[in-house]
Structures are given as C-alpha cells and as structure tokens.
Amino acid sequence: MTTIYEVIKKPLFTEKGMDLKERENKILIEVDAGANKHEIKKAMEEIFKIKVESIATINVRGKLKRFGKSIGRRSDRKKAIITLKKGEKLDFIEGV
C-alpha cells in the first residue's frame, strides 16, 4: 500500500487542463499508475483540504520515439480529472 503522498505525482499544465479548470472547475493531475479512484480522492482531500465530487482516470500509453537509429518508448502514465464540489477552489500557481 502506498501513502497518500505517493499517489499524486504532479499537476498537468496544458491548454485543455486550463480550459477545464476555468469552465467546469476540474483539475488535471498525473497520478501513480496503480492508484484507484478511492485512493486519489482520499489523497486530494487530505493533502489540499478540498471536497472532491468525482474523479475520472485515463491510462495513457507511451509513444514510440526514434533516437537516431534506435527506437525507444516513452513511459506509460495515468492521468486523473478531478471535479471539485461547487464553491471549492484549488490553485497550484498563485499570481498567474
């Protein structure tokens, strides 16, 4: 079993993620590949002191990439889209 600090890896700052945050009060983060929705919800609520309404998870396969003659592969990862309850707010970067 992992601790709550190992479940959440990092926030994802993408155009889609910023649009989701502004329009629908959703946050996009990268999580541990073995984490389930219950663990993610518990970690978010305990670490950031927010109320989570729902969570959607996405498994992203790593892309094949060429490095000169050889072919490599990027790592697989798991993303989570977290919907916050009405009135809740979470800013990873203040002042932007």
UniProtKB/TrEMBL annotation:
Coiled coil: none annotated. The keyword Aminoacyl-tRNA synthetase does not apply. GO terms for molecular function: rRNA binding; structural constituent of ribosome. The keyword Ribonucleoprotein applies. Keywords: Ribonucleoprotein, Ribosomal protein, RNA-binding, rRNA-binding. Pfam families: Ribosomal_L23. GO terms for cellular component: ribonucleoprotein complex; ribosome. InterPro entries: Nucleotide-bd_a/b_plait_sf, Ribosomal_uL23-like, Ribosomal_uL23/eL15/eS24_sf, Ribosomal_uL23_CS. One of its GO terms (biological process) is translation. Belongs to the universal ribosomal protein uL23 family. Part of the 50S ribosomal subunit. Contacts protein L29, and trigger factor when it is bound to the ribosome. One of the early assembly proteins it binds 23S rRNA. One of the proteins that surrounds the polypeptide exit tunnel on the outside of the ribosome. Forms the main docking site for trigger factor binding to the ribosome. This is Large ribosomal subunit protein uL23. It comes from Candidatus Nitrobium versatile.
